[in-house]
Amino acid sequence: MMAFWWPLLVLAFAYAICRFLLMLIPSNVPSIDVDASDVLDDGNQTRENSFIYVPSRRQGDKVQCYEPATMKYLGYYPALKPDEVKERVVLASKAQKTWAQSSFKQRRQFLRILLKYIIEHQDLICEISSRDTGKTMVDASLGEIMTTCEKITWLLSEGEKWLKPEYRSCGRSMIHKTAKVEFHPLGVIGAIVSWNYPFHNIFNPMLAAVFSGNSIVIKVSEHASWSGCFYVRIIQAALAAVGAPENLVEVITGFAETGEALVSSVDKIIFVGSPGVGRMIMRNAADTLIPVTLELGGKDAFIVCEDVDVPHVAQIAVRGALQSSGQNCAGAERFYVHKDVYPAFVAEVVKIVKSITAGPPLLGKYDMGAICMQEHSEKLQSLVNDALDKGAEIAGRGSVGNIAEGAVDQYFPPTVIINVNHTMKLMQEEAFGPIMPIMKFSSDEEAVELANDSKYGLGCAVFSGSQHRAKVIASQIHTGVAAVNDFASTYMCQSLPFGGVKESGFGRFAGIEGLRACCLVKSVVEDRWWPFIKTKIPKPIQYPISENGFKFQESLVEALYGLNMLDRLRALVDVLKMLSEQNTSKGNKRTD
């Protein structure tokens, strides 16, 4: 029964939060009109004649778009050629030069307009995401709407603070100076983003780039081009409302050659995708030596100690595994459960999973949607088969609802696998699907060792009745993010950076680090009491350097940095003495 009510409660909570945020928006924020007439569904997902099989995403110079849940054809977009990509970047560069002079007040107004539109059009945004990627409306609300609203409100609250000059200490030798770090826009940011969160994956890099004074060109996945080309209309309408230049934000469509052209044209690249493509991005970026941020997925460990509330943690575990309708993004993919609660935990998880039904998400009666990519269900089944061949067992599966024959391959029921070990591909390769492999452990040390036995290092979650114990375990796991007694909560704290290590990539987006990563970080030193006190090269080391020049430097170093106060005072006396002698000598020369 709880499995039925849980999604409704989450959706109601998300709606209440968004309505509360709407009340916080100043009344003078204008509304924008975004034409959605061509993306509104003209039927429902039960009509048999709406199922049209599309054999390939690519057809010549077109990106074919269709609904994964139904195989309904949505249309096509152009696969841009390299020259066309470079033209878009040139236009974005011209727009950026104007936008770089914009005030933070103008940038905040842009964010408020976006926030107002998002809150007032949640159903439209979520429906488009659902149609293009197969996820449910609840998953879209959690992963698309809430995360984006959280990022906008954080930027409104703190964005300007972290982009203002930051003053630093000057050290002992530069006490007469002031030192600061300035954050200037880089120029044109390029982003190549994945399909699993089509709305947030566009807004996430765009918000940081535009708020820090850049322009951005975003290459959306060929698996989510239809939604991406609508979402950019929202951004462009909001920019127009604040008087921003045209072409400041562009979304482009295409395949590998389109992305390669973008990498070679921009001032920084942000990539969200697979390790293999990430390596190609790095090789291409090396030609122009631009900075790169890579988020390359993960194989997150979910650790359950014996002192937990099993039903509570089991619910979180299933949500973590099936995040975004089984289209994981930093999803839990490896479950390590203490042997003392292993049977109870497996039983609870199986009970929940068996209550889950996958089906066309917009019908509103299914807990899980479709798999976005064609033939991905075959990969998932091959991972399961490999595990079964090596001794694993299926402990339980969900079900698939009444779907059309042409869309059968787009669904994979949630599956619980037990008796797994690290010789199985399922425990080593990123599955990106609704599979829960559960393995026993006997000690905290073993749990840490198992969690670290992965080529990925994005995130982890640790659950224990002792918060201290959970923190100690999490601190030993080599990942970029960690959640204690929760899952994926780090991403909802948008003040925190997000990213991984090892084959999960490097660099960070979100948080202060992600915002400043869109900037040229410039160190600036100036005179504290100009023009009264200026830097003057001491006489002993002016050209031509005097015979005691090195002795002077040696004494100066000890006077500034010596560990013993008496030695420092003695060295200071030597420095002053040499300066006095130099001045006396020069005075005598003038007399002669």
UniProtKB/TrEMBL annotation:
Q: Which GO terms describe its molecular function?
A: oxidoreductase activity, acting on the aldehyde or oxo group of donors, NAD or NADP as acceptor
Entry's SUPFAM superfamilies? ALDH-like
Q: What InterPro entries does its record include? A: Ald_DH/histidinol_DH, Ald_DH_C, Ald_DH_CS_CYS, Ald_DH_CS_GLU, Ald_DH_N, Aldehyde_DH_dom
Reading the lineage from the top rank, the first entry is Eukaryota
Which residues does the Swiss-Prot or TrEMBL record annotate as the active site?
A: E295
**Keywords assigned by UniProt?**
Oxidoreductase, Signal
- Per the UniProt record, one Pfam family is Aldedh
Q: Where is the signal peptide?
A: 1-16
Domain Aldehyde dehydrogenase per the UniProt entry, residue ranges: 59-524
Concerning PROSITE patterns, the annotation shows: ALDEHYDE_DEHYDR_CYS (PS00070), ALDEHYDE_DEHYDR_GLU (PS00687)
Q: Which family is annotated?
A: Belongs to the aldehyde dehydrogenase family.
- By what name is this protein known? Aldehyde dehydrogenase 22A1
**Organism field:** Olea europaea subsp. europaea
Q: Supply the source organism's classification.
A: Eukaryota, Viridiplantae, Streptophyta, Embryophyta, Tracheophyta
